[in-house]
Design a protein that fits this description.
Blueprint (H helix, E strand, L loop, with lengths): L15 H29 L56 E6 L5 E5 L5 E2 L5 H11 L5 E3 L19 E3 H11 L2 H12 L2 H14 L19 E2 L1 H11 L3 H7 L3 E5 L6 E5 L4 H4 L3 E9 L3 E10 L2 E10 L2 H14 L3
Antiparallel strand pairs: 1-2, 1-11, 3-6, 4-5, 7-8, 9-10, 10-11
């Protein structure tokens, strides 16, 4: 038989003595609760408490506290300066290039487009000064003055003729370094940055490791000494791409002629850029020449046409300008 939703319940009268017992019980509970509340407030306000609250010992039933170890994010790796994507462009120069090592790179993306003995370690002559300029720009301000030291006259040619005691702004020494290719400019800047010649060479090699230049070693700031001073076409292209990101470097290497004032008795100097591509190749905007008897002619070249930026490096060539033009011409003909 289904039960009704509501069921009638008879109300019974509660006797008086039961009501009194219930009331007494409620009164006792309220008193206990009040005392407990006062104790809790006292424990929550230690500044007002005269005694520290006793801590309950842990019980076996207590849940263990989980320890979460947070691993800090590691350093973000910089993207590689040069990237090889698939097979390089197939091209045979006829007649062959005279360079012992060469490379062609997209200066915008760092993609290697073509290479020949690109990782071969070769003497690099005054293209060493690219690294000297990079470290100078990263450690000194252009308006800083460099006091020329006494040993400056012992530098082997080529030198522009700095005199001990002269106070020359970094900006002017950089023009002498990158346009005229003065070995005394390299020495003066290296000593200012590194404190000593050896100190600067250590900085050069440390920077090479930082940039991932695995085929590079420096022994001097100018490249005039070939012994233990070498690099590869690949590494020079990578270093040049890094250097060209610096506006001051980019502006200096693109300058054809620079006139500067000078302390008496010189009064003024005119620097003419030795990179002849600036006046003979359309779109050329840098970077650096080099030559020693052992290294032969070396050239790091940069050119821009129709929104395309190319970097070409040729090392150990009897005619570096001709080789660089041919490599750049080939690069501008590659379909984009």
């Amino acid at each position: 038989m289904p039960l009704p939703v509501l069921e009638r319940v008879e109300r019974r009268r509660v006797r008086y003595w039961r009501r009194r017992a219930v009331a007494a019980t409620l009164t006792g509970l309220l008193a206990t609760g009040g005392a407990l509340a006062w104790q809790l407030r006292s424990e929550e306000s230690p500044a007002k408490s005269t005694k520290p609250a006793a801590q309950s010992p842990p019980t076996s039933a207590s849940a263990p506290t989980a320890t979460v170890e947070v691993t800090p994010p590691g350093p973000t790796e910089e993207p590689a300066l040069l990237v090889r994507q698939g097979a390089l462009a197939s091209h045979t120069f006829t007649p062959p290039l005279g360079a012992n090592g060469a490379i062609l790179v997209d200066g915008t993306t760092g993609t290697v487009l073509w290479g020949r003995n690109a990782h071969e370690r070769l003497p690099i002559a005054s293209t060493t000064k690219i690294m000297t300029a990079v470290l100078t720009l990263e450690h000194l301000r252009l308006e800083d003055e460099v006091v020329i030291r006494r040993g400056i006259r012992l530098v082997e040619p080529f030198r522009e003729g700095l005199r001990p005691g002269e106070r020359i702004p970094v900006r002017k020494l950089l023009y002498g370094l990158l346009l005229f290719s003065g070995n005394d400019d390299a020495l003066a800047l290296g000593q200012e940055v590194g404190g000593t010649n050896r100190g600067f060479v250590r900085l050069m090699n440390a920077k090479a490791r930082e940039l991932g230049l695995e085929d590079t070693q420096y022994s001097n700031s100018s490249g005039v000494v070939d012994e233990d001073n070498w690099s590869s076409a690949w590494d020079l292209a990578a270093l040049t791409r890094y250097a060209l990101e610096k506006p001051n470097f980019r502006a200096i290497v693109a300058t054809r002629i620079k006139r500067v004032t000078w302390p008496a008795p010189t009064y003024a100097k005119v620097y003419v850029n030795k990179n002849h591509l600036l006046t003979t190749y359309a779109g050329a905007d840098g970077v650096k020449t080099g030559w020693t008897t052992k290294a032969n002619h070396c050239l790091v070249a940069s050119a821009r046409r129709h929104g395309i930026h190319l970097i070409a490096v040729v090392l150990g060539s009897p005619n570096a300008y001709r080789d660089a033009r041919r490599v750049l011409d080939f690069g501008f003909r590659i379909p984009s």
